[in-house]
Amino acid sequence: MSSATITMSNEKTASNPLSDETVADYLTNNPDFFRRHPNVLADMTLPHHSGNATSLIERQVAILRERGIQTRHKLGELIEAAKENDTLLNTTQSLVIDLINADSLNTIFTLLETQLHKNFGVESASVMLLADDSLEYKQTIDEKFIRNTADAKEKISGILDNSQSLCGTLRETEADFIFNDTKFAVGSAAIAAKKIEHNTINSSNNNNITVMLAVAHHNADHYNSDTGTLFLDYLCDILTALVRKQLA
């Protein structure tokens, strides 16, 4: 009985908005309404009569209201960023665990490329090991993942000589060398490379081994000088540690 009455009352209110007199009577009989509902007062416009001049109080209230709106928007952005970071962290943790459990370099390299495409939205990804022909494990690594150091120095010397990760556009020869099997155009790329000293692994190779991790996008502005490389460097460090362990 009461439920039906409430439903009918709600429908009546929706179709017949309250009159000014009804609202005024309610506020008169409930003088603490705005104290209990300050958010309503914050969104209201309360003109302050001051002739033709703009009221200082009105101006202050307008500024405070605008700041409140901006603060709410900023808070919303921060919350969304926190959610995205939380998702990225969970996805990264899962990837690292899978990489650690992989039983060979081929599995590690394939898994990393696949997961970058599938779970991180990377268009083109390249995992590469640069070593001399004397590397005793070379025959066990899929040829798509390993390149000769001398060839690399000829094709991408500018990248290898840089001690920090790089973001930006590539020369055509550089893009072809690093992303030789991608089906996408390479407009811009982010590249991290780490060297493994020969005396840290059991190998007859007398030169350094370089582990390279690169991602690319068809848009020339996607990876640029403002792009952060923290995540890429982190994955490259993990990859390098796993390569060192596999070659030990």
Strand and helix map with partners:
Elements: H1 2-15, H2 20-29, H3 33-36, H4 38-42, H5 56-101, H6 105-120, E1 124-131, E2 146-148, H7 149-160, E3 166-168, H8 172-178, E4 188-196, E5 209-217, H9 230-247
Parallel strand pairs: 1-2
Antiparallel strand pairs: 1-5, 3-4, 4-5
Number of helical elements: 9
Tertiary shape: elongated
What can be said about the biggest beta sheet? 5 strands, mixed
What structural class results from the helix and strand content? alpha+beta
Tell me, rounded to a whole number, the average pLDDT: 83
**Percentage of helical residues?**
40-55%
What percentage of amino acids are in beta strands?
Answer: 5-15%
Distance between the termini: 80 Å
- H/E series, N to C? HHHHHHEEHEHEEH
Radius of gyration: 31 Å
Low-confidence stretches: 1-13
Number of DSSP-assigned strands: 5
- The order of strands across the largest sheet is 2-1-5-4-3
